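Researcher: Here's a chain I'd like modeled. Treat it as a single chain, no partners, no ligands.
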Amino acid sequence: MTTISNVRGQDDLYERATSEFGAALARLARGYEADPVQRRDLLQEIHFALWRSLEGFDGLCSLRTWVYRVAHNTATSYVLRQRRARRQILVSLEEAQAVAIQPDANRKVALDQLMDLIQRLKQLDRHVILAWLDGMEAGEIAELTGLSPGNVATKVHRIKSILARNFQGGSDGRR
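Model: Modeled as a single isolated chain. Structure tokens:
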């Protein structure tokens, strides 16, 4: 049974979570959705799912881990629904190595190209690199994804190498 005091506690926790992690949630949404209109819808879904989930927050993990878990799960579900509609092909890390990002003096264009490559990664790889980009440690990402910390560190290293090579202008790492 939900009481007024439970809702107030839930609202207070939601305010704290969005105050601390609101910018990270926006970055996460951008990592999952390129289209600005769809990104706003995704972010709204994330916020609603987060608020709704906080009723069950028991403090067994950090608020940060809870927020990221809810956000990633919501984004994953959203992407799966959208992918069914769009039939976008996701790529493995090996396939991502072959995708070159064109060097460009325009930082926004370069960032858009980088985000496009991240969006094309398979869910788990995208989940790992987005959490790492938001400053999470391997142990925290492991707790979030169910992978071992060593596996997370390996994935982060591989993804960073692929992104760096592609960002430098080609899949072979040469300019």
